[in-house]
């Protein structure tokens, strides 16, 4: 038991050290050259364990993601101001709509390895400032790169992105099969960080939690 206790203590210390270094070490190491005026305002939305990216919509964005409307997401509604994208573990995402429904198996899969899904929702106007919302201005070229990154995260079938039937939290969101596998090291927040780097922003080297991602974004952008 003592050996197990020491091992667990060392594991916790190593995890804390990795998270700290992953936050304080910027990625990329050096700022990118300025790429013009930031004309697109994107948002990062967070809760205690998860982050999403909210993309401002216009006609071009609606056309790019027109498959969402075909699945029942009202992305073409005039009230919609943002499409919200998140990547995560299939079991945890689908089986844990609320904390009261937390189960052991989805948690175990999230800590080991699981298939991934994309969750897509829509939102109207989002008020800033807010402690759970961070906004960033990026240029048109970087905005296009970000849309490419998000689109590439959807697994493609013969008819396009594969919607998961009977999987949603409300009438306005849907889940899709995604590329990649989810685990404790490569999770929803590392996906968000990679997307933000594609958009020309700097993150920490490894950001497994919203708190570390948010701190690194404040430090380096």
From TrEMBL:
InterPro entries annotated for this entry?
CHP02117
* Protein's name in the database: TIGR02117 family protein
Q: What is the lineage of its organism?
A: Bacteria, Pseudomonadati, Pseudomonadota, Alphaproteobacteria, Hyphomicrobiales
